[in-house]
Each structure stands twice: as C-alpha cells, then as structure tokens.
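WARN no homologs supplied; continuing
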Amino acid sequence: MRSIELVFDEATDSLVRADWARLAAAGLPSLAPHTSASNSPHITLAAGADLVAAHEGPWEALPMEVTFSGAIVFPAGTGKYVLARSVLLTVPLLDLHRLLHQGLSGALAQTCPGAWTPHVTISRRIPGHQLGTALDLLDLRLEGRCTGARLWDSSTKTVTPLGPSV
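OK structure emitted
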C-alpha cells in the first residue's frame, strides 16, 4: 500500500503527538508507541497499492493552514475503531486534493474527491468501550499548518518527500 500525505509543521506535529501521549499514558491504544521515523501525524490525500507520485503536483499551495474540529470514528473490525481528529474542509484543501487526483490512478475509492474524509489518526483498533475515555483526553479544537507532502510505501517502509522542497 502506498499513500500520499500532508505533513505538519513542528508545532502542529507536537500537538497531535501530545494527544497520542495522553492516550498512551491512560493505557489506551495510541500511535505513540510506534516510534519509526515514518510514523508522524499526517493527512492522507490518496492511498492505493498502485499509486505513482511525481514530485510535481499541487504542492505550491503549501504551506496551508488547517483547522481540526472534533473527532471522527471509523470501524476497524468487530468492536474496534479508528479514532481521529476531523479536519475541516476548506477551499484550498479541497483544491489541492482535487488537483492531486487529476490523472492519478489506483487510489482507493474512499480517498477520491467526493468520498474523502480528511482526518489525522489518533488511535487504531481502540475498543468501543474505551472511546468515551479517549475522547475526554483529546484537545479537539486547534489549528495547524501543513508544510509538506510525502509518499509512504508500506512495502519498502520508505518515505519520499514530495514537492519543491525535494
């Protein structure tokens, strides 16, 4: 699986990691224990096994301000969920996403324009009975800044920066 992701400035990255740490400190599933360099807070723009990313793209729109609003929960198997911060849809974010997908093939349907739900994952496979506790620990309303983009390839475990900073 490959994904194209927006990454954050240091301050925003730290705020998301603080959520991860609060959940971990409370004994809840969190992304905090995953310490590989590729595990950083991000917004997935496209994902699919056959994605091919060029260094050119809509990256001139970066940096871009983003606003998180509340939490979102996705199913992740029987009795398990993904807990994430919801990202408000803005015209600049939607334009960047749409431009990226023009000519892109192999993207999973849920990452395509019209079906995409921008979010930043906080916890994977959290049991339903722990969701309320986890939500109480999150600092849900904050603003941030996306400053770059990258391509993550899970088969090779590599991250490739995308855009003009390469």
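The CA atoms of residues 19 and 140 lie 9 Å apart.
OK
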